[in-house]
Structure formats: C-alpha cells, structure tokens
Please model this.
Amino acid sequence: MIPLNGGDLHINWQKELARAFTAPDALLDYLGIDPEPWRPGFGARRLFPMRVPRPFADKMRPGDIHDPLLRQVLPLGEEFAEVPGFVTDPLDEHDSALPGLLHKYRSRVLLVLRGGCAVNCRYCFRRHFPYADNSPGREGWREALDYIAAHPEINEVILSGGDPLMAKDEQLATLFDALEAIPHLRRLRIHSRLPVVIPARLTAALRARLARSRLQAVLVLHVNHAHEVDDILADALQDWRRAGITLLNQSVLLAGVNDDADRLCRLSERLFEAGVLPYYLHQLDQVQGAAHFAVDDARATALMAQLLARLPGFLVPRLVREIGGELSKTPLDLGLEPC
Ligand code: SF4
Model:
C-alpha cells in the first residue's frame, strides 16, 4: 500500500497514535476489502479492543484478507472459542512484587511502564492483564525504584508494558536518570513493538539519550513477518545501531502469519539487513481467545530444523516457551546444532 503520510518519520508519533484505526470496517475499507463476510467476528473487539496505526496498515497488501499483518490485528469470531488450556493469565503474572514491577528472574526486573500499546495484537498474552491494578502512580514508582536499589542481585531493568515507548521521551529520560543512579544496574532493556507500527517513534532525542546512558541500552523489537520492516523502519534502525544501541528481535510463532520456513528465513534476513539480530521465536502463550494462532510443538521444531539447514546460526532465533514460575524461558529441544 502506498503510504499517505503514515510512514513519514517526521510526522509526530502521537498524532499517528490518535488517528489509528479502531473499527474493523474502517480498516478493511482502507484496504479495499469488503467487510461484510467478516462482520460477525468484529464483536471480538469487546474482548480486546482493536487498534491499528496507519503506518502498519500501509504495510498490508490491499485486497488481501489473508495478509499476514492484517491477521495479527483483525478481530475474528475464533476469539470467542473456549479451548481447554487457554486461560486469562497463562504466565501467572497477575500477582506482581509491587504494582508496576514484576521480579520473575533473579537478575532482572520488569517495569510495566504503560498499560496501553499502539497496536493491539490479537494473540497478546497480556490481553487480559489488569493494567489498572498495576499502575503505580508517582509514589508507586518511588517504591519500585527503592525495590531495585535494595536488591543488588538485579543488574538489568526491562521496560515493558503494554508498550513502554508509549511514554513520552521526557518521561523516559526522567526514569533513565533514576535508573542510572542505581550503581548495581548494568543494562537497560526496552521491549517495544511501537517502532514497528509507527517508525516515527524512533525519535532522534530518544536515540541520543540512550546512546549517552552509562547503562548498556538494548532495544528488543517485536516483528513477526518480513513485511513489517519497510525501508523507513530499516533506515531508522540502522541509525540506532550506529549509535551503539543493541537491536534484537523476538517473534511469536503464529499460524497463518509466519508458520512457514520461507517466511521465517525472509524475516531473519530482513531483520539483519536492518541491523537487528533475531533472538527468540516464542511458542504462543496459551491465552484465552488466541488458540487459532497456535502451532503445535512438532511442527514448530520441524520448522526450526529447516531454518538451521538454511540460515547461518546467528540468524536462527531460539525457539522457546515461557512457563509461569520457571526461572528462565524454556528452549524447545531440537537435537540439532546451528552451523
Ligand atoms: S504490542 Fe506487545 S504487549 Fe502490546 S498488544 Fe502487541 S504483543 Fe501485546
């Protein structure tokens, strides 16, 4: 699709947020797809609202209801299916150490900086997360920072959400100042999908602030398909990489989106062209409403065997599953070594 101005890095990213599609009819109209056959599924918006920024819609193929980017964001009737094993809190996250702070792994803590996202991915494992109960407020943030300062075993802070880049640059800079003042911290990791759906979020100001941090900055993107990395995003990411910010990607293995060796190979190649290393390929977290995206383990490991045969080892992401209560992600054993 030809971007109108959605892909323009100079448009204010908050304006892009404000004009995101929130109605399936409007999105399908924009893509030249007749909404009528799909309308019965649109009620799934009540389970999890729809939100799709225009720059992301501009990367979809017009007229194609099976477009792999559209499939990630369009509410469908399948979300109403109740499937055994698919639950509202697949990772046992709803009990946090403090509001806004999850201490799942010994050396890392996760700060839930923002409840909202720029895009609502239908397979999201946090689609039922009680963000309202985890919004710490000003006093709560002080407590979260005190908690990190009181735990010298923590060396890395992961900003998560929702999407942490929903916070403004000035708010992030204030948080970075506070984190940099905690001596035992070494790394600052930001998990975000926002630059993928609104590349203008990769502001020069944020890049410069991270580049001069005493903490090693890592930006972990969430890209599932090569079409999500257009030239505008790739150029911006190259600037971030040149600024010394480590760029990684994690994907989710999704039926109808990327459960195909050709697509996964193209994704890894495209990420590397943009200066990003593939890091994890996640098996779907079994969240209620997303069972239609599941790929079984036998097929997942067979796909990985094909990637290992076709790609250099550094372009093969690790196939993992997250299990609530485990001290790390659990790799799915392939019995093969990358070359
Ligand atoms: S951007 Fe991430 S947290 Fe937000 S809806 Fe998508 S998968 Fe979930």
User: Anything to note?
Assistant: The pocket of iron/sulfur cluster is lined by residues 117, 119-121, 124, 126, 161-163, 193, 222 (CB under 6 Å). The mean pLDDT is 91. The beta strands are 101-105, 108-114, 156-161, 187-192, 216-222, 246-252, 277-282, 318-321, 330-331. The longest helix spans residues 297-310.
